[in-house]
Amino acid sequence: MKEKYYVRVNDIQPEVRSGGRHSYPLIMPNISGNTGFAMGYHELAPGSEGGPLHTHDGQVQEAFFFTKGKGVVTVDGVDYPIEQNVAAWAPPGIAHKITNTGTETLCFIWIYSPPKPEQL
After folding, report:
1. Which CATH number fits domain 2-119: 3.40.50.300, 2.60.120.10, 3.40.50.2000, 1.10.10.2910?
2. Which one of 43, 49, 99, 110 is CB 3.0 to 4.6 Å from 22, fit for a cystine?
3. Which pTM value belongs to this model?
């Protein structure tokens, strides 16, 4: 069931990306009509990266909450360990990436604030 104020990950068709990445857009302005943020769920296969080291344009910042797996989140050139129930964020213009170094799928929630232009 997917409604304006309620959504289940299992009801969303993931965006399948290179390297075994699956991204589930959950609450976004262009889907839900909310303002100020976009939120989704991501699954990252063992040994893969959540994309290359990158930054976001404008004032877009990104937060992560890791719910399963192990890995490394690199923010501003510093590697931080990922484990269950850890949060991290990348301020606007700061380079970051996520790497699954574990043997199981790395799962996390992501939030962009404000949303990226393609999420509006």
Report:
1. 2.60.120.10
2. 43
3. 0.93
